[in-house]
Design a protein that fits this description.
This protein is of the alpha+beta class and 303 residues long. Among the domains are: 2-94, no CATH class; 135-208, Sandwich (Immunoglobulin-like), CATH 2.60.40.10. 35% of the residues lie in helices and 20% in strands. It has a five-stranded mixed β-sheet with strand order 8-14-13-10-11, with helices on one face. The protein has a four-stranded antiparallel β-sheet with strand order 2-1-4-5, covered by helices on one side. Helix 6 (212-226) packs antiparallel against helix 7, helix 7 (232-244) packs antiparallel against helix 8 (249-261) and helix 8 (249-261) packs antiparallel against helix 9 (267-279). This is Fibronectin type-III domain-containing protein. Keywords: Plasmid, Signal.
């Protein structure tokens, strides 16, 4: 009887460990022993073909990336928000550079200004968000202006300019009559609000289209992440890191906002979403304080 209890207890412990391992794998794509090799992981390998690390493995600063001959290893750095392909060496060195993260102080300043854009009623371009894009034929959208009868959208390139009148709604699908944007070129988009023949509002933004090889690299990384066994939250973190490696704020916001709308987000990602809206100058679209778990003493203006 005593031996039976010992066997039962051993089986129970083994079963519990397996369940924990399965949960950890579902969250990060790794077993606990893999993920706990260091206190803080700084990157994830997104491709096969490395001598030491399998596709999807989280990497420590001291890990070495050594591609197999003829292979180019794709590594996503988390802290610096950067993608490296075909490089080898210590992960900490490969991921040592990148844009600085927003500070809490800046986030609080931006939240205090919530609602000012809507209150003032200024025309504001809301699609694409940010200045870096990867679409050859992007769509445009803007906040409507009270009293406007129609809008005019102009797109100015290096050597040409196109115009389109919009009489219904406040968005414009990229016109078929306009040529596709050119890789690596900068463009200016201006939206004018008219009241009959009078301009009553306008907004202008600069758009920089990535180079073709940069777009291919982003698409490769995104496809690799979707192939990993990650939870929706972990996948969103990885996708944000990919898009922010090229400052693609519009794509990053799309991923984080979709996760929030589906009810699968958490306070950390809601705060990150707020950061992204701050970066594109649209603070009033950020999650409210209770969703981001900011200090309860801070009261945000009501719309």
């Amino acid at each position: 009887m005593y031996s039976f209890k010992k066997v039962f207890l051993a089986l129970f412990v083994l079963f519990s460990f397996c369940r924990i391992s399965e949960t950890a794998y579902a969250e990060t794509g790794e077993t606990p022993s893999q993920a706990n090799r260091c206190l803080t992981t700084v990157a994830r390998i997104l491709s096969s073909g490395d001598q030491r690390h399998a596709k999807g493995r989280l990497l420590c600063p001291g890990d070495q990336v050594r591609p197999i001959a003829g292979k180019q290893t794709l590594v996503l750095c988390h802290n610096g928000k950067s993608l490296t392909k075909g490089k080898e060496g210590e992960v900490g060195r490969l991921c040592s550079s990148g844009p600085k993260r927003l500070q809490q102080k800046g986030r609080l300043r931006f939240l205090k200004s919530r609602g000012t854009t809507d209150k003032e009623g200024k025309l504001s371009i809301v699609q694409p968000l940010g200045t870096m894009i990867m679409q050859l034929r992007p769509d445009f959208a803007w906040k409507p202006v009270k009293g406007s009868t129609h809008y005019e959208v102009t797109l100015q390139g290096p050597n040409s300019k196109w115009e389109q009148k919009v009489t219904s709604g406040h968005r414009l699908n990229y016109p078929k009559s306009w040529p596709a944007l050119e890789y690596g070129k900068a463009y200016y988009v201006t939206v004018y609000a008219y009241q009959n023949e009078k301009i009553i509002g306008s907004d202008r933004t600069k758009l920089n289209l990535l180079y073709e090889e940069e777009i291919s690299l982003v698409n490769e990384a995104v496809a690799a992440i979707h192939q990993l066994s990650l939870s929706p939250v972990e996948a969103a973190k990885e996708l944000d890191a990919v898009y922010m490696s090229f400052k693609l704020l519009d794509q990053s916001i799309g991923v984080l906002q979709n996760l929030k709308d589906s009810g699968q987000s958490n306070s950390q990602l809601n705060r990150l979403l707020g950061d992204r809206y701050y970066q594109v100058g649209q603070p009033e679209l950020a999650p409210r304080a209770e969703e981001a778990q900011l200090p309860t003493s801070m009261k945000l203006p009501q719309k």
